[in-house]
Amino acid sequence: MTRAIVVGAATVGLALSLLTACGGSGAGGTQPTATAAATVTQTVLPSQNTSTQPSVVRPSAQQGVVPNVVGLNHQLAQDTMQAAGFYFLTEEDATGQGRLLINDRNWVVVSQQPAGGTKAAPDTKIVLRSKKIGE
Questions:
Q1: Residue 66 pLDDT more than 50?
Q2: Which domain holds residue 70?
Q3: pTM of the model
Q4: Is 58 among the domain residues?
Q5: Integer CA distances (angstroms), 42 to 3, 24, 33, 113, in order
Q6: Is the model's pLDDT at 1 over the cut of 60?
Q7: What is the mean pLDDT of the chain?
Q8: Among 22, 93, 134, 135, which is most buried by a count of CB atoms within 10 Å?
């Protein structure tokens, strides 16, 4: 990929003025002036990551083992699934009340689908059924 960076005449003039102020001089002791814009071309190799965003690593299509997260708090269960390469996670209130799991750390996983130890593709839907701690 090639990018062109256009530097305005004022920028070039400022740079030349700074050079002459540091001891350089133009012909006859006058300061040079710039009237044209300069173009700088930068070549970026495909292997270089010039974005400020971190690289997103997509899971491969290979199957992995679904971790057993029953008994863990819901947040730790989600973190464990993602560390194993499973990102298609859904959650349900295991009591049947249809509550939303707003603060995942206040909930504990009581069942999961598919079961822990099962081999599954990374794009498999994982359902975590949880209830509030102490219920």
A1: yes
A2: 64-132
A3: 0.55
A4: no
A5: 5, 28, 25, 51
A6: no
A7: 76
A8: 93
Strands (E), the chain: 2-7, 38-43, 64-65, 89-93, 107-113, 119-120, 126-132
Instruction: Please tell me the distance from the alpha carbon of residue 101 to that of residue 66, in angstroms, as a whole number.
Output: 22
Provide the 8-state DSSP code for 92: E
Do 74 and 38 have their domain in common?
A: no
> What's the confidence (pLDDT) of residue 4?
45
The confidence band for 106, taking pLDDT boundaries of 50, 70 and 90, is: very high
Assigned token pair, 104? 């995942």
| Counted domains in the chain | 2
Cα 54 from Cα 58, distance rounded (Å): 12
Please report which confidence band the pLDDT of residue 29 belongs to, taking 50, 70 and 90 as the band edges. low
Distances 89 to 14, 24, 25, 135 between C-alpha atoms, Å:
56, 66, 68, 23
How far apart are the C-alpha atoms of 101 and 129, rounded to whole Å?
10
C-alpha closest to that of 111 among 93, 98, 126, 130: 130
